[in-house]
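Whether sequence alone determines local backbone shape is best considered at the level of individual chains. We regard such an encoding as a compact summary of how the chain folds. The sequence in question and its structure tokens are set out directly beneath this paragraph.
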Amino acid sequence: MIDQTALVADVQALVRCRSVSGEEGLAVNAFCETLKRLGFDEVSVDPTGNLVARIRGGRPGKRVLFEGHIDTVAEGDRSLWTRDPFGGALEEGRIYGRGTSDMKGALVAMAHGLASLIPEKERLAGEIALTAVVCEEVFEGVAFGRVLDRLEPDLVVVGEATELELAVGQRGRAEIALETFGKSAHSSNPEAGVNAVDGFVALFAELRGLGLPRDPRVGQAILELVDVISEPYPGASVLPARCRSTWDRRLIPGETAAEVLAPIEAAIARVSERDPRVRARATIVSAEARTHTGAELSAERFFPGWLAPEGAEYVVRAQKALASAGLPAPLRSYAFCTDGSESAGRRGLPTIGFGPSRENLAHVADEYVEVDQLGRAAAGYAALARAFLGEQAG
């Protein structure tokens, strides 16, 4: 049985541990203690700072890995919150605070749901693993890759919000830097230079007209400007010699970095042909991050989309398991990016998504998760583990 009162209290306690990316140590330690109390066989933290816990079945079998990230985005402007972002307030069936929906609520629901199987673990064939991953908000899948290298699971269950539906794919994400180059000159004598922002403006119009692919199951690819800055800044009567903009590109499954950059490079060529003064380049952004243990992460910000094959056996089994727990779980896809980019997008591992709450509650002021969804999610996680490792799994 799942103790709903304890489940709520554990979500509240974890929310009270501020865990912005790279500062997850307090939350990781607190969640370790929760998992030990619930009776997991092994609870450890790897050198990257990811938490891994296990429940070992009494017979050989597969390994199912339940995944969630323990880091959150920052709370932002506190004046926009009507409740303490780290208070874990319980009001009218909702728990409020940063990370409730994205995604500490799901992590705790996983812990309680999977722990409910401990009394029957000798009948399970294989191993249940749970991981709380760090730095997902800045590097989807990079830290998770360290867990996958170690565990090599047969199935991954991502706990990001699905409203208790079953996600079988997602759009990926790429961060693209577009740089335009000019020649500095005094703004009183612009003819002596080339304004790099003029090149950006010309390219902006060209990129807005790009036709992007669409997947019937995952949706439309997107290219959206998210920031722009010229150099030198501030200008102080100097024409900018460089303009750098960042573009968020949402990917459909199967797209590669080369395929994403090709139409942008073609747009640069067209604009430069019309105006030879326009010089530009587009690249996938590379970045670095440091985890709470001091481990260094570095990677290109290219996180592939993924989609389970039509009629995949593990999807059919998962849907039946959830239905048996009173969760009809229609199929859907994630609109945002998850750590599934690593397990399914890069490595081709069977991956599904199932979690409480809604995608549009992530990263917002007064973020919350519904208590009813937490309890039902916990039951769903238990049903999934039993379906893949129980006697009926074969």
The first strand starts at residue 42 and ends at 45.
